[in-house]
Design brief:
By secondary structure, the chain is of the alpha+beta class. The protein is 44% helix and 16% strand. It contains 29 helices and 19 strands.
Amino acid sequence: MCGIAGLALPDDALPDVALVRAMADRLAHRGPDGHGVHAMPGCTFGHRRLSIVDLSPTGAQPMLGPDAAAMLTFNGEIYDFAALRDELAALGYTFRGRSDTEVLLHALDAWGDGALERIHGMFAFGHWSAPERTLTLARDRFGKKPLYYAPLGDERGTGGVAFASELSALLVHPEVRARREVDPVAVAQYLVHEFVPQPRSILAQVRKLGPGERLRWNTHRGVAVDRWWAPRTGVRLRGDERELTGELSRRVERAVARRLVADVPVGVFLSGGIDSSFVAACAAAAHPRVKTFAIGFDDPSFDESAHAELVARHLGTDHVTEVLSERALLDLVPPTLDAMDEPHADSSILPTTLLARLARRDVTVALGGDGGDEILAGYPTFVVDQVLSRLPTSAAAGRGLAALSRLFPATDANFSTAFKLQQMAQGMRARGAERHARWLAPIDPDALPSLLGEALRGGADRCLDAARAAGAGAATDFDAATAFYLQVYLSEGVLQKVDRATMRVSLEARAPLLDTEVVTFCLALPEHLRLRGTTTKYLLRKALGARVPRAILERPKKGFGAPVGRWLRGPLRELMQDTLSPARLRMTGWFEPAVVERAMREHLAGERDHRKLLYSLLVLEHWRRRWLEAA
């Protein structure tokens, strides 16, 4: 796991080595074990290394191919690299070391475009072909590793292309920094999703490569982006339940075994939920006394540590739990806001960072359960949608639910009745991907124009573009919702949160449930084997049944968050009121001060639960002051 950066320029110009080195150095937290910069005519790559496989200097990057015909800077892990290495050796390729980077470099030379289909793992990389004078950027199938890029000169990149693992590294480039204008559509999408979905970034001139996408650039063609892989929905497997349960188990077991391979210590994040428990069970079977990690909190509404300890005892893992005070979470808020070079309002980044910090004391790699909810209908919204699909719904029904939500107290519980009714009301007039996006939104998308100031109001009509694009062409509402969660919510929300939290402490996170074999199998399962009545992740629960205590299978889903609603009424109240003061908002013109002031007043009085909206605005306004106002 690493940080990458690079710059390609037209006409064999030699990019500024010091500039690329400064870009890469912004990513030092992603790669504390080594650094490198290499320049060739037309291209310079930079790299920060977190050593996982082949800790020797032969794994250092940027890595050059034979005769310096190609150059690679690579972030991630290729899990099937050993088998690919044997194939390439049979073709006559020789290897200086044991790294998966060298395997990828030769694979791109041997198979060209076909190399991406052959490799399985998590990755983002930049590849330069000297003979073709062509830059290629690529991102893995599910978006586990981020990749930002900025065409220089104009949208085609007539002046070249800069790229990096994080936006902060791109902002080192003087042209990118000078043109840092906010994208109104990106702001609107952020306020609906709590993050900016690809291909946009919060800045108008910077883009993000999407999951399964590839970018090519050279002087003659400019920037061209295509999709090299996309998940398939609508294909249904046949077989009896017992056979399919066994097949799911075997695929997850293989995926976990592949992700236990490393030249450094490996552990497992264990929340005590279905997904992480399955991963931990497979890891414990493959590796006796595997280390597992969990954190607990003194607020029972947010604490899961007892469930994690129950699973750990049953599996016999070497388990580490750290119970933390609310103060530990609160102390993370200011540095997390400062480090956020693109706004991301999922408060679970705070406990995820603490969990990563705990694990990093003992291991360099941690496996987690990310992906299970998206591929196996694990969210409660799937259950609600199933019920509503049998009932007539309308905008009037949504207004009725909204009115009903006001009859319940806005408590500080993780998911209060008022909060659930309030969120449900937002999706009653839609279906499929858009309905689920509305259910998760901090603000009803229909109310967005009234919140936005004149400078940003033009982006409101496109706030649901990403959800609609994800669900387009799906055969059923169920498939459309699955596509939204997999292609938008998971890739740009969950996985980027985990990437930022873990790489902040130089820890590599791996997601076995997002193995290609596992995902393609689960997406082809009949709906009733993913969601049966009110039972989510039905087949996964069947596969896990003999591995963990029954209490784990029967516990309701619990989110991994922070008590933001209560904080905004208490320890974060002053920060919120200062950051979102009418005077500040009038100065920027981004938001209507009266609308924001009313939301704060209602939340502070306990009349409405505006935690998601107010925290999203707090994060965004802090980002604006931190990254746009700075010289």
